[in-house]
Structures are given as structure tokens and as C-alpha cells.
Specification:
Layout lengths: L1 H12 L3 H14 L4 H13 L3 H14 L4 H10 L1
Length: 79
């Protein structure tokens, strides 16, 4: 998972949000309920200005992992 974080961080640092989202979606296809990947997807969507899509993902994460600090921080940014 560490290598996934590195790739996402690099793409994000370069503001290559479409590529970062595509990368995350490819890995979500293999592991659709992975909270780390879902959280990353919501953060990317927020950066792209797609707050409604991001909120839907965060609401799912809230049900499945209510104490996930990454998700809590992302939701705080949204509101």
C-alpha cells in the first residue's frame, strides 16, 4: 500500500488529478471497499471541485469506518 501512497502523492503534487483518480479507480476495481483508497478518491474529487461525489463516498466511509481520521478530516474540509 505504501507504493500506492507514493504514486498518488506524486500525481497530486503535480496537480495531475485526472491521472490520480484513474490510478485510484484501477485499484478500487480490485478492492472496492478499501477505506484508504476510497478516502483518497474523495480527496481527489474535492480537489477537482466535485464535492457532491466526494460527499457520497465520505458518507459511505462514515458508515463503514466511523472513526477513520482521514475521512473525518476530509469531511471537515468539505464543510
Amino acid at each position: 500500500m505504501k507504493s500506492l501512497d507514493v504514486v498518488i502523492d506524486i500525481l497530486s503534487d503535480l496537480d495531475r488529478w485526472d491521472e490520480a483518480l484513474e490510478f485510484v479507480n484501477e485499484h478500487l476495481a480490485k478492492s472496492p471497499k478499501n477505506p484508504k483508497l476510497l478516502n483518497e478518491k474523495s480527496k481527489i474529487l474535492l480537489k477537482q471541485g466535485k464535492s457532491r461525489e466526494a460527499l457520497k463516498i465520505m458518507e459511505v466511509l462514515d458508515q463503514e469506518a466511523p472513526n477513520n481520521i482521514d475521512r473525518i478530516n476530509s469531511m471537515a474540509q468539505l464543510y
